[in-house]
Amino acid sequence: MQIIDALIPLVVLIAMGYVLKRYRFLTVEFWQGAERLNYWILFPVLLFSSLATVHFNVGQVLPALAVVFSVTLLMSVVLWVLKALYGTPVAQFGVYLQSHIRFNTYIGLTSMALIFGAAGMQVFAMIIAFVIPLVNVLSVLGFSQGQGLSYKNIAWSVAKNPLILACLVGILFNFSGMHLPESISQSLKLVAGMSLPLGLLCVGAALQFNALKYAGRALILNTFGRLILVPILAYVGCLLFGLATFETMIVVVFFSLPTASAAYVLTKYFQGDSQLMAAIISLQTLCFGLTFPLWMWFLQT
Description:
Number of strands: 0
Structural class: mainly alpha
Largest sheet: none
Shape: globular
Radius of gyration: 18 Å
Helix content: over 70%
Strand content: under 5%
Oligomer: single chain
């Protein structure tokens, strides 16, 4: 029952965003501005605030990071091998890669806060601080062959990512031992507090269910892979690395998240199959409401 109670606020905000966009209560320009505001300001402030004040317990988070990195790299290698075997076009391969390794941070952080409280949110924030650069590099590399990008251009596109910069600055500030004045700290908390609700509304607004009829088998396979296969691999990895129950739940929840809505933007930027990406994002987000409670039930039994 606790899982359902925690899931309802996410569903309500995502559904609200979809309805508001679907019936044009708010303009297209509003949603574009909201996504831009959240991506460049609100969410980076949230990441900085979380990482600048968290107590880094390396012994606690290192095994979890080892599992997350291992599973992410394993799935990437498997997909690259399948690409070579079946000659997958770059426009589709970048979509398949993102649908398996990227994660919806808004849903993840909100879920952690509602289910595990501050402790879960802090561990999750430490994990994503190191994983966001990795998945961004891999995602850009997934499209790089089609664009003829140099490693210099790839490095620059990753280095200017505001989420990566916020994580880096937050970690450096944390290790510096400095403390923010109370007025600045409270201001940042207010700004950060707007990020997750607005982000979930934008997740709903980005759903494109009309694209589902286009995708076919690839849609089903990518949704099954992300929401079922990858969490299974993560759970096995947690057992192999000997993670405690709490860390195991955090890692499996991380891999049970649907892919990021921002994957659609990256796909369009690199002229990938954006219609397929939209369909995968929509179906994964929809199915998350079914698979997530099942994973939580499994982990708690």
